[in-house]
């Protein structure tokens, strides 16, 4: 199965002949520690509000996001998921020539193609553990007439985190729109690593986030952008989007961004689970495990005896789904990606990988 956005659990359930709830999904990159208790409680207490319209200004939701991100509510644009905001930003800026740091989430390229933008890709290279020398990027933009730069930070699928100092240096050399997708930034020390810290300093910074990954809420479809004051922000505000955030996403969002106990718990548990997964994978001599500053880890198979397709098929029969990474630019079928789940699930994955390797 090839799916550019990870596992389709509905289809897999039918294909594998097992209940969807029994599938252990290491491909989705969703926080395994569940929903915010405060968000869930507020949702449960307000189910009858399905019969009314949300506040069209989303004042309380923006206030919660503002406090969480330490930014002005005036800079916040809401969307039905981060992908909607990625699409809207690209359509508003309409870059003729775009620099895309790659490999990356496929929707950037899909949306750029829809507006006939000329796409130039600067690649994270495995020879450098998928780290980027920002001076090389700056040298490239000085030689080309790019209208926009698109960055996923931390990057999916490599887990690479570009320091905020380097992003600022890049902006000062470019002085044109830079869109930074921070879908996974909350798995880092995001108060220090987020480009939101640059929004008030410069006028063409677009930071995009969603709630699907860290807050484990892909079903409510809530995303938000923090955008520098100026033409891009004002144009985004002018797009007709009356009541585009449903009442349940609004209710849950208002509470979960303020759930400090839940947020702190996730960070504490995540570090331990990440270490367990990273060190466990690193013990297999057949893999090269790349450093990651996100909630997933990219691995390369070094053995000539099997590839990611073989590993995927073996694990899928046991109800474990990993992400084959060959759909990403410059990555072949020797690459796979796994996200951080519970310790129980991680240990099960590592044991089944061990069993697989005994056959090869």
UniProtKB/TrEMBL annotation:
An example Gene Ontology molecular-function term: histidinol-phosphate transaminase activity
Cofactor (UniProt): pyridoxal 5'-phosphate
Q: Is the keyword Transferase assigned to this protein?
A: yes
Keywords assigned? Aminotransferase, Pyridoxal phosphate, Transferase
State a single Pfam family of this protein. Answer: Aminotran_1_2
Lineage, top-rank taxon, reads Bacteria
SUPFAM superfamilies documented for this protein: PLP-dependent transferases
Annotated Aminotransferase class I/classII large domain residues: 22-353
Any idea what this protein is called?
Histidinol-phosphate transaminase
Q: Which organism is it from?
A: Candidatus Cetobacterium colombiensis
